[in-house]
């Protein structure tokens, strides 16, 4: 019933977008002719109507070229390996010289991997970049089987093997846990494709440290409550009909409720910038920036129910990794087995999702690593997203990450 109710809302949003297009088309001649309010107000309202609702369509990465030195180098997306649940995607560059190969491990938390577009764009100047491009669970047929916590780890191992020896991991947010697990699994099995280094950015390694609202929510109810209230069945109109999922619209709703006032003001700002946009270039640019952000933010994907529930139980409620009691395919894995994969952790001073200390806990877990193979960076003045995107990421954090990867290449 939960998903059926959302589908009704989606149909209503689709009708709202259609009426918005009609209304915008009717006001465009007036605004282009130079008429001011109320024509511009109506046109702005129509644009807001055209943005109603969420989408389950993956946005484009939109990275066609990257500047290396004094020239623009073309970039093309190349699928290297695909499974029903994810694609190992490479951003191939037209150049001869080799660069360190980096696998960007994207979160599986309600958004597509394109949320890391800025992270990838920055890394591309100095690295041969791959990303875990996760698929929307509602589009995966039941015949493809389950996708749980261990399956995520197995995908990372498989992707690293496809990239080859000497690759590096850069994990962002939630998959820092799976990145650690994959590195330990490969170390214990002496897999030649084990990562040369891993950079863990704002990830929930030990959520008992400085708990955030997200951590408190995850531990406030038994796991049966999450399964009963947050898990839905994909309706018949989709390819994954019958699959049990944690809907992406639930996750986005939860994130928005944490900062409701900020999102409300963001949409009010968008409306007024749109109302002035055709006459003020600065407002037009600001409106485009806000629209780009929400285009990405409102593009959601569903998670397989087993992955979501196992993650909540393992990472947040039982703190299994934090106690070095994690298992893989039923067998215990020991983080101290990691001896050849250098470790860097990055945290944000104002992070309200993964607070200070939660990611740094990985250093204590990886007791088999020599001190010179470990590094930590606390980025001042940034929240969660500022750890891996924005100006401070590009100018302050990224140079340290780049140097760390190159030192262990």
TrEMBL record:
Residue span(s) of domain PHB de-polymerase C-terminal: 202-408
One Pfam annotation, family name? Answer: PHB_depo_C
Q: Which domain of life is it from?
A: Bacteria
Q: Which Gene3D superfamilies match?
A: alpha/beta hydrolase
Which SUPFAM superfamilies would you find in this protein's record?
alpha/beta-Hydrolases
Question: InterPro entries, per this entry?
Answer: AB_hydrolase_fold, PHA/PHB_synthase, PHB_depo_C, PHB_depoly_PhaZ
According to UniProt, the name of this protein is: Poly(3-hydroxybutyrate) depolymerase
* Organism, as annotated: Methylobacterium aquaticum
